[in-house]
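By way of example, we now present a protein record of this kind:
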Amino acid sequence: KNVFQIMIEEYEKENKDNPSAKDKMPLLEEIKIASHSMELGMSEEQVYYRLGRRLKLPCYIKLMTLLEQNVKKGAKGISAVFEQEELAALEERKNLAKRYGEEAGTRLLGPMILLLLVIMLMIMIPAFLSFL
């Protein structure tokens, strides 16, 4: 519960002089809304549920679901669950990086073939002209 307040305070301290910073950190704006909801008396479970649904990203929905379950069941075993989620997220990032690398390699294939043809022409044209 207090982590939201700490995050908001740090965010506001860093962006005091920059009024356009709201565009840069929409997640913290959503966390601000959730924090205000808790201050107004909404239960933590409900706040986490609504925050996850407002963010609409699977990773955040999963995180908020875990926090919601943590409030219901207690903190027993939550660190192990977060460690598993961390490993799964790391694996997902690796796979995504591999996929982007493969796509970039595929995009570069066309220019490389074109360059090969140009070099072959540069070598073959003088060779054919020397026979004449």
Notes: The mean pLDDT is 87. The longest helix spans residues 78-131.
